[in-house]
């Protein structure tokens, strides 16, 4: 079973590998990266960018993928139309984790380092809640400094800064959503400092792919 993940930043590859080792080790994970997808993104998906992502999804489907996932959160809107182009499962970075989030309660904390990701996370969380016939109260936290800290070797400052954000948020929420794939590298450390459920987008995606591709 081959799952191909499409990335727009190198920092999301390792968290994805970690998540699949934890949740779906039998999968053959293939990572496809195009960092121009983020470099060329402004604050909206142009027709040209939508076409490029759709072509990448089709490329993966034509080259042996049994399923395709997007690790780049800003391209989630492309998934719905792309599903009409291929005959394999396609998941956005949000789909599985938002379904998981609404099962924990109504107060969901969301941590992001990019404003567009935070905006889209709130939208898709509300959408997941509506599909379940329930309501949520997103508790957003934007820390743009996290993006810079992610690139520092060792990432100790990144983990510490993210831990501080989690600790501030934990008393007022039922669960905390780490909205970007790259944040999942800090998950083992974060679980040591809080009992509040922590939701990792790559882990949720890996579990969903296992459900979709594993025959009972």
Describe this structure as you would to a colleague.
The structure is a single chain. The protein is of the alpha/beta class. It has 2 domains: 101 residues, Rossmann fold (3-Layer(aba) Sandwich), CATH 3.40.50.1860; 107 residues, Rossmann fold (3-Layer(aba) Sandwich), CATH 3.40.50. The protein is 46% helix and 17% strand. The chain has 10 helices and 8 strands. The strands form 2 sheets. The chain has a 4-stranded parallel beta sheet, sandwiched between helices. Strands 6-5-7-8 form a 4-stranded parallel beta sheet, sandwiched between helices. β5, α6 and β6 form a beta-alpha-beta unit. The longest helix is centred in the middle third of the chain and has 18 residues. The protein is globular and about 45 Å long. It starts with a strand and ends with a helix. The model has no long low-confidence stretch (mean pLDDT 91).
